[in-house]
TrEMBL record:
<dbReference type="InterPro" id="IPR050263">
    <property type="entry name" value="Bact_Fimbrial_Adh_Pro"/>
</dbReference>
<feature type="domain" description="Fimbrial-type adhesion">
    <location>
        <begin position="33"/>
        <end position="185"/>
    </location>
</feature>
<dbReference type="Pfam" id="PF00419">
    <property type="entry name" value="Fimbrial"/>
</dbReference>
<dbReference type="InterPro" id="IPR008966">
    <property type="entry name" value="Adhesion_dom_sf"/>
</dbReference>
<feature type="signal peptide">
    <location>
        <begin position="1"/>
        <end position="27"/>
    </location>
</feature>
<keyword id="KW-0732">Signal</keyword>
<protein>
    <submittedName>
        <fullName>Fimbrial protein</fullName>
    </submittedName>
</protein>
<dbReference type="InterPro" id="IPR000259">
    <property type="entry name" value="Adhesion_dom_fimbrial"/>
</dbReference>
<dbReference type="InterPro" id="IPR036937">
    <property type="entry name" value="Adhesion_dom_fimbrial_sf"/>
</dbReference>
Length: 185
């Protein structure tokens, strides 16, 4: 009787080894890939600020002073950051960039076909009202926990003087595109 139990036990043990070997072979048929991102930004850009459209409205040529650099049609806009929580990074600055105007590299030029001439878009820091030149970081904003909104204004700016009773500013569509970068400090 011991011999029968021994053979039966040996047979069961062999079957378990075959099953275990088969299970091990099946485990090698798949894989799991792990991906993610780690960054040191203490905030995220609010989804409404990622791709923003600012309607500058209509202005008349007569709304501009005759001097180059005069502005018209100031329009407010904001960039918001959320989920802010950076114990070591306490400040942020904003830098706008884009196609520069041909005659003034500090303001946005027009993009696309059939664009108006003699005008650009000037961005101002709403805190001070001062011009924020393209490719130049704003002064620092203090980051508050959770959410922050940074306010700016955009204005049409005259880039060409009038000559012999002809306006230096054309009429028509205005399209300009700016990108912005947030630098944390």
């Amino acid at each position: 009787m011991f011999q029968k139990i021994g053979k039966y036990t040996a047979l069961c043990g062999s079957s378990m080894l075959i099953v275990m070997a088969a299970a091990t072979a099946q485990a090698a048929d798949g894989q799991v890939e792990f991906t993610g991102v780690i960054n040191d930004n203490p905030c995220t850009i609010n989804s409404e600020s990622v791709k923003k459209s600012v309607d500058m409205g209509q202005v008349r040529i007569a709304d501009f002073a005759s001097t180059v650099g005069s502005t018209a049609g100031s329009t407010p806009f904001s960039i918001s950051l959320e989920n802010c929580s950076g114990p070591t990074l306490k400040n942020a600055s904003i830098k706008f960039s884009g196609q520069q105007a041909v005659t003034d590299a500090t303001v946005l030029g027009m993009t696309g076909e059939n664009q108006i001439t003699g005008v650009g878009i000037q961005i101002n820091d709403a805190r001070t009202g001062s011009k924020l030149a393209l490719n130049t970081a704003s002064s620092d904003y203090v980051l508050r926990p959770q959410g922050n909104t940074f306010d700016f204004t955009a204005s049409y700016v005259r880039l060409a003087a009038d000559t012999d009773e002809v306006s230096g500013i054309g009429t028509g569509k205005v399209n300009a595109l700016a990108s912005f970068d947030v630098t944390y400090k």
